[in-house]
Amino acid sequence: MMSKIKIPSKKRRFSFVAFSILLALALLAGSWGHIFYAERANFFTLFNEQNAEYAKKFFSGLFGLQEEKPAFTDKEAWINAGKLTYETLQMSVMAIGFATIAALLTVIPAARNIADGTLTVSKRWYRWILFGFFRVIYIFSRAIPELVWAMVIVFILKPGILPGAVALALHNFGILGKLCAEVIEDTDARPIRNLASSGASNAQILFYGIIPTVMPKFLTYILYRGEVIMRTSIVVGFVGAGGLGQQFKLSLSYFHYTEITLLLICYIILVFAADFISEGFRKAAK
Amino acid sequence: MPLIELNNITKQFERKIALSSLSFHVKKGEMVALIGPSGAGKSTLLNTLAGITAPNTGTYLLDGVPIQHYKKRKELAKKIGVIRQQFDLIASLPVIQNVLAGRLGEWGFFKSMLSLFLPQDKQLAANALNRVGLLDKLYDQTSKLSGGEQQRVALARLLVQSPAVILADEPVASLDPARAEDVLAMLTKLVKEEGQTLVMSLHSVEYAKKYFSRIIALRDGEVFFDLPTSEITKEHLAELYLLKEMAL
C-alpha cells in the first residue's frame, strides 16, 4: 500500500498580480454598471434612424452611387492620386532614411556595455556623459508623437512633404535608437573581446566585431519602423504635411466622397507594397 | 631566460582567493598542460597570463619584461595569442575575415577597413586555412561551420597572428572526443612547427598526458604539483581530484 505523505501546502499570499486581477474585474463590473444604471445609456440608440440615414448617405457617396462621374473612374483623378502616392512614398523613404542615419550615428555611445567598457575592454571617463546625453535625447524624441512633431514643424516650415518627413523621422529616431542600443547591449561580448586579444584597436573592434554582429538585427528593426512610418504618413498629412493624408482631409471637408475612396485604394496599395518589400528584405538578410 | 616567469602571484575576487602565491617558469618551446578540479583557478591563471586580469601581488615577467609595461594591445598581441572554449569568432563574418582578424594588430585602421571589402594578405589567410584543412571554406559564413571547424578557424587565426606564446582555455571542452582529439593534435603539431610555447588548461588528464610534456596541477589556487608527464602517478591524480567532503 502506498504510504501517505504529507503534501507541503502552498503558501497563499495576497500578491500584486492577484490584487491587480481583482481590481480589474471590479473596475469592469463597476463601470458597466454605471453606464447601464446610472447613465441609463442604451447601446441600441446608436442605431437610430437618423444615424442610419447618415451612414447610408456616406457609404453610397463612397461608392459614387449618386455621382455622374466618380473620381475612381476618372483618368485625371487617378493621375493626381498617383502623384500624391508617390509623394507619400518619398516622405516615408526620407523619414526612415533620416531616422536611420541619426540613430546609427548615435547608437554606439548610447549602449550601456560601451559606456561601462565591458564590450571593448577599455574605459574612458566621458563615455557615461555621452551615454546619458543620447539616452535623454532618445526619450525626448520618442515621447512626442509624430502628429505633434508634424504640427510644430509645419508651423515653422511651410506645409509640404519635407516637414512631414522630418516629423516622422524625429519620432522614429528615438524608437530606433533605443531598440538598436538594446541590441548592442544583448550581444555576446566574448567574440568581441577576443579581437582585443589579437591586437585590434577600438576602431577595429567596432568594424570587425560590433557592426557585423548587430547589423542583421538593426536591419529588422529599421524595416519594421519603415513599415510603421509608411502607415503613419497619412496621419501626419492631416495636419498639412502633404501627400495622401493632406488630400484626404481636404476631400473630406469638401464632401468629395469618391475621391476619398480613390485615396484609400492608393493608400492600401502603398501599405501592401511596403509590407511585401520589407518582408523580402528581411528574408534576404537572414 | 624563461619566456614566462611568475613569482608569488596572488589574486583575490571579493573575498574569494583565486590564486595564492603562485610561482613557476615556462621556457620557450615548452608545452604545458594545466589540470585541476573545477574552481582551482585555471581560468584566472590563464587570464592573468594573457594580461586581462591584473594580479593583486607578485610579479609576472613576459619575455623578461613586466606585463604592465606592455601598454599597447598590438605589442602584447605579438607575444600572446588566446584560444578559448568556443565563441571565439564573429559568426556573421566570412571565414576569411575571421582568419585575417589575426592581422589587426599589424594593420593600421585604413588597411583593415579596406580589407573588409577587398581582403588583404589573402595568401597568408589561405596558407593558414590550408594548414588546418579548411581551404575550401574560405568564403563561407562562419556561423554555418560546425563546432570543430570553428575551432580550426580559430587556430588559423592564431597562425596568422603568430604570437610567441599561445594560451588555450579549455579549447576542446565543447567538442565530442573525435573532434577534440583532432583539434588538440592539430594545435600541438602547429605549435611545434612554429616553435611556439603553449599553455593549455584541460579537463581531461588523458589528453594532458598524451599531448603534453609537462603538467602543472592547480588546487585551491596553489600549484599542487608541477612535473614532467612521465613522473605523474595514479596517486598524484587521485589526490588532486579528491572531493573536499571526502578529504575531511
UniProtKB/TrEMBL annotation, chain B:
<dbReference type="InterPro" id="IPR050086">
    <property type="entry name" value="MetN_ABC_transporter-like"/>
</dbReference>
<dbReference type="InterPro" id="IPR027417">
    <property type="entry name" value="P-loop_NTPase"/>
</dbReference>
<keyword id="KW-0918">Phosphonate transport</keyword>
<protein>
    <submittedName>
        <fullName>Phosphonate ABC transporter ATP-binding protein</fullName>
    </submittedName>
</protein>
<keyword id="KW-0472">Membrane</keyword>
<dbReference type="GO" id="GO:0005524">
    <property type="term" value="F:ATP binding"/>
</dbReference>
<dbReference type="InterPro" id="IPR003593">
    <property type="entry name" value="AAA+_ATPase"/>
</dbReference>
<keyword id="KW-0067">ATP-binding</keyword>
<dbReference type="InterPro" id="IPR003439">
    <property type="entry name" value="ABC_transporter-like_ATP-bd"/>
</dbReference>
<dbReference type="GO" id="GO:0016887">
    <property type="term" value="F:ATP hydrolysis activity"/>
</dbReference>
<dbReference type="InterPro" id="IPR017871">
    <property type="entry name" value="ABC_transporter-like_CS"/>
</dbReference>
<keyword id="KW-1278">Translocase</keyword>
<dbReference type="Pfam" id="PF00005">
    <property type="entry name" value="ABC_tran"/>
</dbReference>
<keyword id="KW-0547">Nucleotide-binding</keyword>
<dbReference type="InterPro" id="IPR012693">
    <property type="entry name" value="ABC_transpr_PhnC"/>
</dbReference>
<feature type="domain" description="ABC transporter">
    <location>
        <begin position="4"/>
        <end position="245"/>
    </location>
</feature>
<dbReference type="GO" id="GO:0015416">
    <property type="term" value="F:ABC-type phosphonate transporter activity"/>
</dbReference>
<keyword id="KW-1003">Cell membrane</keyword>
<dbReference type="GO" id="GO:0016020">
    <property type="term" value="C:membrane"/>
</dbReference>
<keyword id="KW-0813">Transport</keyword>
